[in-house]
């Protein structure tokens, strides 16, 4: 087991390094460097080119590419992501203030979609070919076909503007501190974010359950004379559920992608919101850092998924 | 119709009923045999897929023949007719500058579908070109292509797309290039995996012993056997790209706002007042996008069931 984990990590490290390098390359290729953002463009026009050059040298911008990359990279590893172009705020501060909001939303959506999605999927598999099954299939298809932001718009228009049940957007009102106060703000974005995920989980859980029900041990359980609900729940569901839960890790990219847009629709002050405004204002260091962190999150998640799969199913690590 | 008498072990489902009908037809000697490909027949038997095909055809038709269906110019500003609710004159109403929304939805469909379908086809061409060859040849070329695709695919797609948009700038062509660049990985992997299993087939061995060149074997003789899953993948990624274009344009980061696309029409719905009072600006377009993507997804599912017997559920 340990050798398997070590081998997986060893594959991951060069890849992470190459991705860091590509992101740095992107950062270098985008227009403007640190100096052009430290100095007001009006002032830069009147400044002596020699002075600007001296400033560049003092910041280490005149050094060869690989030296600059290495210093950027070592800083990155130590958690120093550089500075935002607008206001010069350390990017690590931005991330630290924005991340909790995003994680809060993502966690709720993840739990909700996994529970509801696997339940619906299992029901659909148990009633295979019935009206319920067809209806759920079509609903699932609708869930992945309707743009998430459109769901968001419809939800805002119905529940916030017409019925007034929930606030239109934002994470909390001034003076509201406890989780209970913030809950109404969270309901709509979390539900909308869950919809696409739920549809995906449902389809996966359905085929996983069908697969489990066709195995021999189900026949054995049935021929033992166990009641049908015990066969389905204790034998089928348990086996079917494992891959579904393990696959949570693989849904991370969908979750990240979804939250970028949903946070914008509901003005949720998370990382995705920050990312969009950085893209709009062409604040490249922030764009690149958030992109880099999201890739790293995906890589780590896939590593954890691989390890979990190997723990559950020994054939995986022995087969390689 | 009284069906054959099955021992009553489980409840009868729709599939059973369908099977009975087919059997009854066969017994009556009415079953058609031959004529048309089996996959096509299977596809046409799938109600959802046919529904998808019909809706898809209607929307494509309406976009292509937009000038015949509406007398309005999608970009013509009419300040006297701003924010009109739907009427006989303007079926979907008018927007904040008095542009006819029905015309904008039709003409916008052209661009949105072009971006979706065009990028999907381009991504498929690149993915298939690389995947088919490296999958067949193997070796270091294969390993290299695999690593590169892994790097592309480890980015959440929207993040990578937005990152490239911020570097390359916004334009229609850039957006299609970016979608192609971020989307080839999935189809490459599928084509490669298919080739890995086809590689062991005997006809490939036979072709090799005839001394055919490797590209010829890979592209001419093996590729046609992988076309089913490739078609499925193209339809599904068309749906995904159309959704992404809509999302990006909604945020104002997709196709430049001067070009009408489905996402760009929705862009104004970011304004809460439009959302509250002018439902006709965003509701019909959103419904059209959803309907189109739904139809493409149904077609993709139907194609998969029709071409891949191992994936039925």
TrEMBL record, chain A:
The keyword Lipid metabolism does not apply. CDD domains: TM_PBP2. GO terms for biological process: transmembrane transport. The chain crosses the membrane at residues 9-27, 105-126, 138-166, 186-205, 239-266, 286-312. It is found in: Cell membrane. This is Peptide ABC transporter permease. It comes from Devosia riboflavina. One of its GO terms (cellular component) is plasma membrane. Belongs to the binding-protein-dependent transport system permease family. It holds the Pfam family BPD_transp_1. Residues 99-305 form the ABC transmembrane type-1 domain. PANTHER family: DIPEPTIDE TRANSPORT SYSTEM PERMEASE PROTEIN DPPB-RELATED (PTHR43163). Coiled coil: none annotated. InterPro entries: BPD_transp_1_N (IPR045621), MetI-like (IPR000515), MetI-like_sf (IPR035906). Its main location: membrane. Keywords: Cell membrane, Membrane, Transmembrane, Transmembrane helix, Transport. The keyword Repeat does not apply.
TrEMBL record, chain B:
One of its GO terms (biological process) is peptide transport. CDD domains: TM_PBP2. Residues 109-300 form the ABC transmembrane type-1 domain. Gene3D superfamilies: MetI-like (1.10.3720.10). Keywords: Cell membrane, Membrane, Peptide transport, Protein transport, Transmembrane, Transmembrane helix, Transport. GO terms for cellular component: plasma membrane. Belongs to the binding-protein-dependent transport system permease family. This is Peptide ABC transporter permease. It comes from Devosia riboflavina.
């Amino acid at each position: 087991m340990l050798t398997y984990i070590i081998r997986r990590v060893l594959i991951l490290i060069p890849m992470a390094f190459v991705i860091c390098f590509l992101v740095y390359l992107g950062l270098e290729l985008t227009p403007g460097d640190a100096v052009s953002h430290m100095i007001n463009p009006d002032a830069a026009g009147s400044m002596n080119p020699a002075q600007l050059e001296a400033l560049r040298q003092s910041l280490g911008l005149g050094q060869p590419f690989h030296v600059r990359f290495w210093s950027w990279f070592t800083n990155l590893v130590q958690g120093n992501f550089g500075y935002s172009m607008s206001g010069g705020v350390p990017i690590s501060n931005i991330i630290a203030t924005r991340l909790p909001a995003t994680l809060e939303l993502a966690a709720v959506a993840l739990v909700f979609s996994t529970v509801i999605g696997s339940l619906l999927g299992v029901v659909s598999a148990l009633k295979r070919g019935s009206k319920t099954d067809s209806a759920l299939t079509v609903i699932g298809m609708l869930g992945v076909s309707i743009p998430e932001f459109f769901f968001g718009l419809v939800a805002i228009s119905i529940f916030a503007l017409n019925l007034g049940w929930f606030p239109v957007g934002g994470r909390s009102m001034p003076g509201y501190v406890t989780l209970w106060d913030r809950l109404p703000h969270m309901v709509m974005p979390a539900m909308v974010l869950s919809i696409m995920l739920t549809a995906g989980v449902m389809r996966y859980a359905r085929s996983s359950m069908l697969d489990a029900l066709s195995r021999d041990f189900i026949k054995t359980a049935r021929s033992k004379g166990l009641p049908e609900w015990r066969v389905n729940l204790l034998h089928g569901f348990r086996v079917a559920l494992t891959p579904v839960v393990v696959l949570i890790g693989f849904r991370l990219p969908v979750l990240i992608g979804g939250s970028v847009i949903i946070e914008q629709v509901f003005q949720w002050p998370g990382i995705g919101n920050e990312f969009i405004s950085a893209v709009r204002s062409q604040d490249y260091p922030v764009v690149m850092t958030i992109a880099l962190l999201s890739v790293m999150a995906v890589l780590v998640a896939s590593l954890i998924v691989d390890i979990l799969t190997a723990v559950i199913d020994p054939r995986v690590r022995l087969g390689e | 119709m009284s069906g054959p008498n099955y021992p009553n072990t489980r409840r009868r489902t729709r599939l059973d009923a369908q099977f009975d009908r087919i059997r009854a037809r066969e017994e009556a000697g009415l079953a058609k045999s031959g004529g048309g490909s089996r996959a096509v027949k299977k596809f046409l038997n799938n109600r959802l897929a046919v529904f998808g095909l019909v809706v898809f055809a209607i929307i494509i038709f309406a976009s292509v023949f937009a000038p015949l269906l509406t007398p309005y110019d999608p970009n013509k500003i009419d300040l006297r007719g701003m924010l009109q609710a739907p009427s006989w004159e303007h079926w979907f109403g008018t927007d904040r500058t008095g542009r006819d929304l029905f015309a904008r939805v039709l003409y916008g469909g052209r661009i949105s579908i072009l971006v979706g379908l065009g990028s999907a086809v381009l991504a498929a061409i690149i993915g298939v070109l690389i995947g088919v060859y490296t999958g067949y040849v193997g070796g270091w070329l294969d390993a290299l292509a695999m690593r590169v695709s892994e790097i592309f695919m480890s980015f959440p797609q929207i993040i990578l797309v937005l990152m490239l948009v911020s570097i390359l700038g916004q334009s229609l062509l850039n957006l299609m290039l970016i979608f192609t660049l971020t989307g080839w990985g999935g189809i490459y992997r599928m084509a490669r995996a298919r080739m890995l299993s086809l590689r062991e087939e005997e006809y490939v061995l036979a072709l090799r012993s005839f001394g055919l060149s490797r590209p010829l074997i890979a592209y001419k003789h093996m590729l046609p056997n992988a076309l089913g899953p490739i078609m499925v993948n193209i339809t599904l990624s068309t749906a995904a790209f159309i959704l992404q274009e809509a999302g990006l344009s909604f945020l104002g980061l997709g196709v430049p706002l001067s070009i009408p696309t489905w996402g760009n029409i929705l862009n104004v719905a970011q304004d809460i007042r439009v959302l509250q009072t002018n439902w006709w600006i965003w509701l019909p377009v959103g419904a059209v996008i959803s309907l189109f993507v739904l139809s493409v997804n149904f077609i993709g599912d139907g194609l998969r069931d029709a071409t891949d017997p191992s994936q039925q559920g």
